[in-house]
Task: inverse folding
């Protein structure tokens, strides 16, 4: 029928709508950081879409937007579906928000069909997964999983604003993000749909895939300290310049992580020189380290080698060197029973089930401490992500929504509501 609602068909276009001001901090590119006016604008529009789909909507104490579609029994435990709505600077439009808009479409399909389930469905839009404003990632999903703490509130952004003050400016209590924690048993499971951010599905001509596990990750800040001086009057042989040391360290990261086992990757995404004058030898240089691997052991071994090289570089050049661990995330396996059910759902929509790991971190890692988790990957063009060239196909999004609805059907058929997570065994 012309004009008939097709679940998933509009999900990508809604992400496109959220890719422009006022939903971005800059015209012509997408930058949406946590607790900014762009974040607020996105929340307002998503809240309207959730309400139109038949959900009761609220903003929790950690700035997560939650739409709830009640089950047959009020206050029943919920299947949570969602992802994040923040972006990296100059990022893509589908990394995160697509999982939220697909969840909204699934709920609307259930409402249009007049269906209520033995469990509720909650669609969540996490406000901060990327860590683009504050140094740690997944702030919001960690709060939901009961892992928020006072140290988190003391984090500061590049402008010196603490997370506590940012919450206050956003109209949320400074000291209460921990109250966003959900109690065990409130959530039956968590399903996150997300673009693959890699080339495997496209290479195999598959629209969707099933995530088996998420890689371990560490974030560190490294600082080389030397002596600031005049760029024109200090001879090269008498300098204690930390910038070349930082360059050596970056090359060491590349060398060590290129020669490691499969899945080991290392990235230096931020570099800052202080005091930052064009004609001043820097007195200090800071770099970020992001090192990931399929296991925590492989990740930690690489971090240890990199830090040893940093110490050696600093000693050879007469510099100081220090490092600060900002975040450590262990590898996270998705729930085997949910993986199996998601495989059945994918097959039910005519797609060969393809299982693959994720090298990217996701909010599902946080939620795994609270309830069983599953992830559905969606093909993205060229495997490109964290880039304005990020792209998806509308028909892939429609298949993803159908697979998610089939997954919901399977959970209902298998009596997921009977006994909570134990029903997954």
Result:
């Amino acid at each position: 029928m012309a004009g008939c609602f097709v679940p998933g068909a509009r999900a990508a276009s809604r992400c496109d709508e959220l890719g422009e001001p006022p939903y971005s901090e800059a015209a012509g590119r997408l930058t949406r950081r946590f607790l900014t006016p762009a974040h607020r604008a996105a929340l307002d529009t998503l809240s309207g879409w959730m309400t139109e789909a038949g959900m009761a909507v609220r903003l929790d104490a950690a700035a997560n937007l939650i739409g709830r579609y009640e089950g047959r029994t009020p206050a029943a435990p919920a299947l949570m579906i969602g992802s994040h709505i923040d972006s990296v600077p100059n990022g893509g439009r589908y990394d995160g928000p697509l999982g939220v808009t697909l969840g909204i479409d699934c709920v609307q399909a259930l409402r249009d069909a007049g269906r209520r389930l033995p469990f509720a469905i909650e669609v969540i839009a996490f406000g901060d997964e990327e860590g683009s404003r504050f140094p740690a990632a997944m702030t919001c999903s960690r709060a939901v999983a009961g892992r928020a703490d006072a140290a988190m509130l003391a984090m500061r952004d590049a402008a010196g604003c603490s997370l506590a003050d940012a919450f206050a400016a956003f109209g949320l209590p400074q000291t209460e993000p921990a109250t966003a924690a959900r109690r065990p048993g409130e959530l039956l499971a968590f399903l996150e749909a997300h673009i693959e951010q890699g080339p495997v599905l496209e290479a195999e001509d598959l629209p969707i895939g099933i995530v088996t596990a998420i890689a371990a990750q560490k974030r560190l800040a490294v600082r080389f300290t030397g002596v600031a001086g005049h760029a024109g009057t200090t001879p090269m042989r008498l300098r204690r310049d930390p910038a070349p040391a930082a360059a050596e360290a970056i090359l060491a990261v590349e060398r060590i992580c290129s020669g490691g086992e499969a899945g080991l990757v290392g990235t230096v995404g931020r570099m800052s020189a202080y005091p930052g004058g064009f004609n001043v030898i820097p007195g200090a240089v800071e770099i970020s380290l992001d090192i990931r691997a399929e296991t925590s052991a492989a990740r930690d071994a690489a971090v240890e080698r990199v830090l040893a090289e940093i110490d050696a570089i600093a000693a050879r050049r007469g510099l100081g060197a220090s490092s600060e661990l900002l975040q450590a995330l262990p590898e996270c396996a998705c729930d085997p029973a949910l993986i199996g059910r998601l495989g059945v759902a994918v097959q039910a929509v005519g797609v060969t089930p393809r299982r693959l790991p994720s090298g990217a971190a996701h909010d599902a890692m946080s939620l795994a401490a609270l309830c069983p988790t599953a992830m559905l990957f969606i093909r993205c063009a060229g495997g490109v992500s964290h880039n304005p060239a990020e792209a998806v196909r509308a028909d892939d999004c429609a298949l993803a929504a159908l697979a998610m609805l089939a997954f919901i059907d399977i959970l209902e058929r298998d009596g997921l509501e009977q006994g909570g997570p134990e029903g997954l065994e």
Notes: The longest strand covers residues 216-225. The chain has twelve helices and 16 strands.
